[in-house]
Design a protein that fits this description.
Elements lengths: L12 H5 L5 H17 L6 H13 L6 H12 L5 H30 L17 H17 L6 H5 L1 H9 L5 H16 L11 H14 L10 E17 L3 E12 L6 E10 L9 H5 L5 H7 L1 E11 L3 E2 L6 E6 L2 H7 L21 E6 L2 E5 L2 E6 L2 E5 L12 H5 L3 E9 L2 E13 L2 E6 L10 H26 L1
Parallel strand pairs: 3-5, 10-12
Antiparallel strand pairs: 1-2, 1-4, 2-3, 4-6, 7-11, 8-9, 9-10, 11-12, 12-13
Helix pairs in contact: 2-3, 2-5, 3-4, 3-5, 4-5, 5-10, 6-8, 6-10, 8-9, 9-10
């Protein structure tokens, strides 16, 4: 077998394709509980009782065993209360957290990268007990009604709860989650007429929301100021109809000589639906100078920048200044393998959260229609070209023609897949880097410049219309 390469170019792909003991059973128990929420818990039948029993059995060897068993029994009999629902949500979250940890351990073994330090700072206490109880009551009512029992009256009951949560900055994470969740539910009302629900997603949102109503659970672990050099690896751009977010993945080298760390910095902004493609950078660029540095292939010098235990830089331009040129592919070859990954907060341990920066080279490529695969050490790795944003020069064709790649290793639909952030290809026999975030700081590329101009024109029109509305 091929050993894990400390240089990061060759991964033990067999470790990413081999079965993980207990993973299928854990996910089956989660799926069984998720189906329970479809029909609701007001009058549970034998199918719901079976799903609850399967969830309780899956955590029978854990400290949650007794509490979850009691909750499953009461809920199966139609007498489950809010505390019982919290216990069931905790069991579901624990199973997905165990899956997350097992997959992350596999990634660490496959890459030969040192794991993050164990443990996570305990969160501090928060107030708002009354509004948290109101949120918990709304989520409990949802569970009783089930997705098939959704109606506008029940869903709209979230509105005053969200307003009250927004008044407390410490509770805004829960407020944002419930607001978005309620909007999705409202779009599917009445539930009786829906043929297919996003079962896993809604169960994820219900579970996270319910656990965040536990006093203290929503409190952050705080951040520490750090000083050193930040070397960008790539930009992950995520677009929604009304919002856009850019997340820069990077290696941070502390000035005190301590081990380097994998970190990320995010910026988001509301967007009109007329601004698309390269025009998205105009909405984000003014809020974070790091985007310009990433687009130009430049390091950033940080002084006192807040960094959380989860590896998130709480970006403020006042703590950063541009540094020397720093090629992302060189950073991936040299600095990434020695960097340790961030910790994951207990409530965020979920396989969907996996997005591990990796570097590959020396692979073969294959295409089947729009699908692209890399062949690494005799094993195939699917490439998620659908995640490549249109707001940059990186294309599926460039990925298929590449010989080296920086990407985010994700776990999707039961397998590991790679989301490309940058690739190296040969142009006239010379290596050339193509980056998804190359236009983040501006571009002279013809297609990018055209999209930027279109976005500027659209934004100008929108500002003029808004001004006329305000004057009337």
């Amino acid at each position: 077998m091929v050993p894990a390469d400390p240089g990061g170019g060759v991964m033990r792909m067999d470790l990413l394709t081999d079965d993980v003991a207990g993973l299928d059973a854990a996910l089956a128990a989660v799926d069984a509980f998720d189906r329970v929420l479809v029909d609701g818990l007001l009058r549970p039948g034998s199918a719901q009782a079976g799903g609850l029993t399967e969830l309780a059995r899956a955590v029978s060897g854990s400290p949650l065993a007794a509490r979850v068993a009691r909750a499953a029994e009461k809920t199966a009999g139609g007498g489950g209360g809010e505390d019982d629902f919290v216990a069931l949500a905790a069991a579901r979250s624990a199973l997905l957290g165990a899956v997350h940890d097992a997959l992350l351990e596999r990634v660490g073994a496959a890459t030969g990268r040192e794991p993050a330090a164990a443990g996570f700072p305990a969160p501090g206490a928060t107030g708002g007990a009354n509004v948290l109880a109101a949120a918990r009551s709304w989520l409990a009512d949802l569970a009783r009604a089930g997705w098939r029992g959704l109606d506008h009256e029940g869903v709209s009951a979230a509105a005053p709860v969200v307003s009250a949560l927004l008044a407390d900055p410490a509770l805004r994470r829960l407020a944002a989650l419930l607001d978005g969740f309620a909007a999705e539910l409202a779009a599917s009302c009445p539930g009786a007429g829906v043929e297919q629900f996003p079962v896993r997603r809604w169960a994820d949102l219900w579970t996270k929301g319910l656990l965040l109503t536990v006093p203290g659970a929503a409190a952050g672990a705080g951040a520490e100021p750090v000083t050193g050099r930040l070397l960008p690896l790539g930009v992950d751009l995520q677009e929604h109809a009304t919002a856009v977010q850019a997340q820069v993945h990077a290696v941070f080298e502390p000035a005190d000589g301590s081990p380097s760390r994998i970190v990320r910095a995010s910026v988001s902004a509301p967007k009109p639906d007329t601004v698309v493609g390269a025009g998205l950078w105009q909405l984000l660029r003014p809020h974070m100078s790091l985007l310009t540095a990433a687009g130009e292939g430049r390091a950033m010098e940080l002084t006192g920048m807040p960094l959380t235990a989860e590896g998130d830089l709480l970006w403020a331009d006042v703590h950063a200044k541009p540094g020397e040129p720093a090629d992302a592919l060189t950073t991936a070859r040299v600095a990434l393998p020695a960097a340790t990954g961030p910790q994951t907060a207990p409530l965020d341990r979920h396989p969907a959260r996996l997005a591990v920066p990796v570097f590959l080279e020396g692979y073969g490529t294959g295409t089947d229609g729009d699908a692209v695969t890399f062949e690494v050490a005799g094993q195939r790795l699917g490439v998620d070209v659908d995640r490549i944003p249109a707001a940059g020069p990186l294309t599926p064709r460039a990925v298929a023609a590449s010989r080296a790649c920086i990407g985010l290793l994700r776990w999707d639909a039961g397998e590991f897949r790679l989301q490309p952030l940058a690739v190296e290809t040969l142009v006239r026999k010379k290596p050339v880097g193509v980056h998804a975030g190359a236009w983040a700081g501006g571009t002279t590329d013809k297609a990018g410049a055209k999209a930027e101009k279109a976005a500027t024109d659209a934004a100008t029109v929108l500002r003029e219309r808004a001004g006329r509305l305000l004057r009337t």
